[in-house]
Amino acid sequence: xxxxxxxxxxxxxxxxxxxxxxxxxxxxxxxxxxxxxxxxxxxxxxxxxxxxxxxxxxxxxxxxxxxxxxxxxxxxxxxxxxxxxxxxxxxxxxxxxxxxxxxxxxxxxxxxxxxxxxxxxxxxxxxxxxxxxxxxxxxxxxxxxxxxxxxxxxxxxxxxxxxxxxxxxxxxxxxxxxxxxxxxxxxxxxxxxxxxxxxxxxxxxxxxxxxxxxxxxxxxxxxxxxxxxxxxxxxxxxxxxxxxxxxxxxxxxxxxxxxxxxxxxxxxxxxxxxxxxxxxxxxxxxxxxxxxxxxxxxxxxxxxxxxxxxxxxxxxxxxxxxxxxxxxxxxxx
Length: 333
Hints:
The radius of gyration is 18 Å and the shape is globular. It is 1% helix and 50% strand. The protein is mainly β. A hairpin with a 4-residue loop joins strand 9 and strand 10. It has a four-stranded antiparallel sheet with strand order 3-2-1-28, with no helix packed on it. Strands 4-5-6-7 form a four-stranded antiparallel sheet, with no helix packed on it. Strands 8-9-10-11 form a four-stranded antiparallel sheet, with no helix packed on it.
């Protein structure tokens, strides 16, 4: 299988077994709304999880990738990777309410809306992290340089004191001190580290490196790699279950997920979302847990679908609309 150097490939059509290639039948237990960034079509969409149907889709900004919802579930923030801003929409009807510009060549990618109410985003083109205080109000921006190439994804400490980024070009993971502005600390981690997640208690940092097919458990303070684990082929993302007991990596070239038992940092099992033969046509990227930890949502960017997976059984329950190259996702219950 040829390695994917770039993820902005044109979407491909996939043979469908149901109308539009998406099984939108309702699934017992699914509730709330799923928000999806269409990075090929420059759109933002809202999917009703009870019915599996898209209820609204709007034009967004250039090449939106990641998104995040506000603590009160009233807003969704979109990182405009093809531009310079983080744009904010209402979750109800997706009306745009604000655009926060991060400056020349920003290329925002990763975005977190913290429980403290503030927004945090990477600016890959500026090799930096932005802290946006009071995003709906004054929207004050503070920039922190990482000094690393391809500052791509990020997580924020529960107390808001630190940010950690994966830096694709430099093959590093970086810790940024948001309060003291001490010099950032970077360590080499695998080949092309991209996925990043933080344990709910903030005590362990998890990273997946797509080029070396590995996941890592890292001490977030000392930045020491505690454990290394071989996972599936081309693990683009890693996501921790809300309960903090398991994580999954999105293994693009396998068309599946590696389930990691975080108690001993071992691969407990693998979930086949599609197959290696379908991986180029599906092109799975982002993974998202439901708030109750019972389901996993997998963005299949080229086939314009979102696979809804039952965690316990590993079964794909249905495929939801992911029109326009759905990638970044968030859920509001």
